Amino acid sequence: MRILGIDPGYAIIGYGVIDYEHSKMRLTAFGAVTTSADMPFERRLNAIYDDMCCLVQTYKPDEAAIEKLYFNTNQKTVIDVAQARGVTLLPLIRAGLPIFEYTPLQVKSSIAGYGRAEKKQVQEMTKNLLHLAEIPKPDDAADAVALAITHAYSVNTRSIMDKYKEQS
After folding, report:
1. Mean pLDDT across 106-134
2. What positions carry a catalytic annotation?
């Protein structure tokens, strides 16, 4: 199974692609979609959409994991991020991909075993879990890879639960 993890935003959208099979994970790709602050916002949204379409076409994920949007104190920022998040999701929806949302607390718990873990702890564990020489950069890409790993763990748990139900 190929999983696309996405850390949404409008200046930087992190992505990470992992292949997950038989409880083994392998990092396939990671990076960031970026837009310039001097671009009109609607052009930024269009660029995000186009780049996300390319990512879906290039990596052909089976499922996607995205960070669940949480309310920030800056209302303008949260509205802009929500709009960008919608544009980010549209190519996934059009491709018929199942989309799963995870909160930062869920990701931290899944990766580091502690919901209040520091970003650096999550990044180090991500590096270790995938046997990488370095932490993926930029930070948004590392967060996206952690989202993909979190989803892989979720898939594994669902698979175990399904087998248990079949035996009952």
Report:
1. 95
2. 7, 67, 140
